[in-house]
Input
Amino acid sequence: MAFTLPELPYAHDALADLGMSKETLEFHHDIHHKAYVDNGNKLIAGTEWEDKDLENIVKGTYKAGAVAQSGIFNNASQHWNHNLFWEIMGPTGKTMPAELEKALVDSFGSVEKFKEEFAAAGAAQFGSGWTWLVKDASGTLKITKTENGVNPLCFNETALLGCDVWEHSYYIDFRNKRPAYLANFLDKLVNWEAVAARM
Output
């Protein structure tokens, strides 16, 4: 199935007061994400993946342990990652639902401890990649990090929260201060209601 660039669920300037500028969203969504969509569509045309849905393309083209993934995987996975990224941020949903708060406390000891561990994982990701809050097959919540476009689908995990730590996600607003970007993401940008809905 052809990839389509989703509309942002908020205006390009809706997150400016929360630490993500209009310019960042214009570059990140309108240029970077669009490139994954456009390139992905070119690469799947005429292949066995042309009529498959996005999740099946990601899972089917991932090669465990590969240093470099295929172009189809890279673009499909980054398309999937960014779809989630836009959905779990926003100007609303700042109050954490009780169900999610309890799950985080049960898994990490406290919400603050979860935030510390999530931010540390993102800061420690060498080069480009993502950090995630996932639910594994047993229902356990854990924090993971992945290189480049690799995502939790590749490991049969459910992504509840994902943060893009490629430089294009933060350099305009935070320059080289990835830890500050991650702290701001958790404290101001996440829509916790959207995260809870993924549980």
The radius of gyration is 16 Å. The first helix runs from residue 22 to 44. The mean pLDDT is 97.
